Structure formats: C-alpha cells, structure tokens
C-alpha cells in the first residue's frame, strides 16, 4: 500500500478496535505502538518490520487518543517504501481500578466516555462495520482478521 489515506484510515480503524477491547476488558494503556511491515522481502516469507512507540501522559481507553498518537507516529516515521501491513497496539496496561480521580470532573472527558460507551453499544448490537469515527472506514480486504472481543 502506497496510499497515505488508506494507511491512515487503517490506523484509525485499528486504534478504535484496540480501544474497544481495552474498554471491554476494563483496562487502560499508556504506550501506543504502530507496527509497519514493509513490502520488501528479506527472504522466503519474511518481510522487514518496523515498530515505533510513544508514551502517553496518562493511561487511556479512548479510541480518539490512541488514534491521534498512532497517526503522529505514522507521520513522523512513515516509510518511503510500500507498506504491506499496518497495525496498532497498546502496551503498559493499567487496571481501571488504579485510575487517578480528578478533584473536579472534566466535562470533555465525561463527554468522551459517554461517546465511547455509545459507540461500544452500537458495535455490540449492529457489528463493527456499523459505525466509525471520521477516517476510520477501511476498504474490505485490507484488514479482515477478527479481533478478540469483537
């Protein structure tokens, strides 16, 4: 894949799926990782894999936050060669019970949590192809693997 828009939409879709699984499991992650498998063959069935990671200021299960971090990594480290696979993961997982409570409720965070809850309910009822944040639609065939929790 050489098309930047296709790669970006795949990154957003993967980030949303990762965040949905984090919320499903009741955990949050602090490190966002982007994996890029290049189309360049190293040998029989082997390809060059590049991974880049960034640490967030606080753990999150929000798809928009994971997407933004992954897209920043893509922009900074986008390979010049064709990409065979793009993936997003989250590491440094914290249990939800260890979340720091704010002294004053953050209205934006509460609205984001309500939006994520609504997205999760829509996906649970109608399937993962039923709704996506802007830029999160991926053409059929680009990523067809069923993920845990979906």
Please provide a written account of the structure.
This protein is an alpha+beta fold and 150 residues long. The chain has a domain at 4-96: DNA polymerase, Y-family, little finger domain (Dna Ligase, domain 1, 2-Layer Sandwich). The protein is globular, with a radius of gyration of 16 Å. The relative contact order is 0.25. Helix 1 (4-25) packs antiparallel against helix 2. The model is unreliable at 140-144 (pLDDT under 50). 38% of the residues lie in helices and 30% in strands.
SSE order and pairing:
Layout: H1 4-25, E1 27-43, E2 46-60, H2 63-77, E3 83-95, H3 107-126
Features:
single chain; 150 residues; Dna Ligase, domain 1; three-stranded antiparallel β-sheet; 3 helices; 38% helix
How far the N terminus sits from the C terminus, by CA atoms, comes to 26 Å
pLDDT < 50 runs, ≥5 residues: 140-144
Specify the structural class: alpha+beta
What is the element string, with H for helices and E for strands? HEEHEH
What is this entry, summarized?
It is built from three helices and three strands; from the N terminus they run αββαβα. The chain is of the alpha+beta class and 150 residues long. The chain is globular and about 50 Å long.
């Amino acid at each position: 894949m050489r098309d930047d828009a296709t790669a970006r939409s795949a990154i957003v879709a993967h980030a949303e799926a990762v965040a949905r699984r984090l919320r499903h499991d009741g955990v949050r992650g602090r490190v966002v990782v982007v994996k890029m498998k290049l189309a360049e063959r190293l040998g029989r069935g082997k390809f060059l894999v590049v991974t880049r990671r960034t640490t967030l200021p606080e753990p999150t299960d929000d798809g928009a936050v994971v997407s933004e971090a992954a897209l920043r990594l893509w922009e900074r480290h986008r390979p010049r060669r064709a990409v065979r696979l793009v993936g997003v993961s989250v590491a440094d997982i914290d249990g939800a019970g260890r979340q720091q409570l704010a002294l004053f409720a953050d209205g934006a965070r509460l609205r984001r949590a309500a939006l994520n809850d609504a997205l999760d309910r829509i996906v649970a009822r109608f399937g993962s192809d039923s709704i996506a944040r802007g830029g999160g639609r991926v053409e059929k065939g680009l990523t067809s693997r069923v993920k845990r929790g979906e």
